[in-house]
Amino acid sequence: MLSDIEIAQKNVMEPISKIADKVGILPEELEQYGHYKAKISLDVLKRLENKPNGKLVLVTAITPTPAGEGKSTTSIGLAQALNRVGKKAVVALREPSLGPVFGIKGGAAGGGYAQVVPMDDINLHFTGDMHAITAANNLLSAMIDNHIHHGNELRLDARQITWRRVMDMNDRALRNVVVGLGGKVCG
C-alpha cells in the first residue's frame, strides 16, 4: 500500500491555469505561484454576481480517524465523486497549520487518493501567507516590547499586555515561555 506522499509524488499535475479554465476562472483572475498553485482574485465574485448561486456543502466537525482522515479527505473525496458523476464541483480548503504536519495526523491536503497536490508544498509553505502573518504579529510584539523598554511613553501596563508571539507549529518547549525575566536590559 502506498503512503500519502508516495501517491502525491506519483501524480502528474496539470497546470493550475488549465484547472482554473475548466471551472470558468479567467486568466486575469488568477495570481499564480508557479505552474501548480494560485490564488483567485476576489474580482471573480463581482463578475459572477448576477449568476445563479451554486450549492454549498460545508464539511465540518468531523472527528478524524487515528490516521488523520477527517474534514480535508472527506471534502476532497466528495468533490472528486461529484465530478465523477458529471457535476462541476470544486473544493476550498484553508491553508494548513504547520502544527500537525510532522505528527501522525499529517497536514491538511487530504490523504490516500483523496488529496490535493503538491502536498509537500501545501503542507510546508503554500503561498507564504501564514509565514507573513506570523512575522507581522511578532513584529508588533517586538515593537510593544521595544516601546516599553525605551520609556513607555504610552504608559502601557506591561502586567496587562496579553499580545502573544506566535509560531504556526506545535513546539512544546515554547508553550510555557515567560518573558520579562533578567532585568531591564535582558528582560
Number of strands: 4
- Inertia-based shape: elongated
Structural class: mainly alpha
Number of helices: 7
Low-confidence spans: none
The portion of residues assigned to helices is 25-40%
Q: Going across the biggest sheet, name each strand in turn.
A: 1-2
Pattern of helices and strands: HHEEHHEEHHH
Report the biggest beta sheet as strand number plus sense, adding barrel if it closes.
2 strands, antiparallel
Terminal Cα span: 53 Å
How large a portion of the residues is in β-strands, by DSSP E? Answer: 5-15%
What structural keywords apply?
187 residues, mainly alpha, two-stranded antiparallel ribbon, 7 helices, 4 strands, 5% strand
Report on the structure:
The chain is mainly alpha-helical and 187 residues long. Helices cover 34% and strands 5% of the residues. The protein is built from seven helices and four strands. The protein has helices at 4-10, 16-22, 43-47, 71-84, 119-124, 129-149, 183-186, and strands spanning 30-32, 38-40, 110-111, 114-115. It has a two-stranded antiparallel ribbon. The longest helix has 21 residues, at 129-149. The protein is elongated.
